[in-house]
Amino acid sequence: xxxxxxxxxxxxxxxxxxxxxxxxxxxxxxxxxxxxxxxxxxxxxxxxxxxxxxxxxxxxxxxxxxxxxxxxxxxxxxxxxxxxxxxxxxxxxxxxxxxxxxxxxxxxxxxxxxxxxxxxxxxxxxxxxxxxxxxxxxxxxxxxxxxxxxxxxxxxxxxxxxxxxxxxxxxxxxxxxxxxxxx
Length: 183
Description:
The protein is built from seven helices and no strands. The protein has a single domain (3-180), classed as CDP-alcohol phosphotransferase transmembrane (TM) domain (Four Helix Bundle (Hemerythrin (Met), subunit A), Up-down Bundle), CATH 1.20.120.1760. The protein has helices spanning 3-23, 29-53, 59-82, 88-110, 119-136, 149-171, 173-180. It is an all-alpha fold.
């Protein structure tokens, strides 16, 4: 297993650590959870960088990397809904978008078409990470702000989720037509 894939596996292994930190009955548990989430999020950028720089791109990496991303973000969204820091509709929109795009990419891959992520999706991911971290920190220093920074960034992430999904299908309309054609 190459270094890029080890970083991806590390991100998956950090998901239960993130959850454990969140639920531990200790002071500042959400701050510790946020730190674990940040570390796990950094591995997302790092594994892609390492894979491209050292030509370590593998089929396993192409398969497991998006799963690792979705596990981490979905876990965070669900616990934030559970504790009342996030509206369920926000989580539903974001998680649904991930299922739809992942399904589309999977069907396209079966047809031999690889669909790359677009820049709007990358912006969505960055906004999600910032919003999740801000919501996790909301019990600490961010609670002193009168501006609802975390909510604002999360709603920006929702907008980018929807817009990037539309752009994704528009940019790949030929692929969509190919995979939806009756054979």
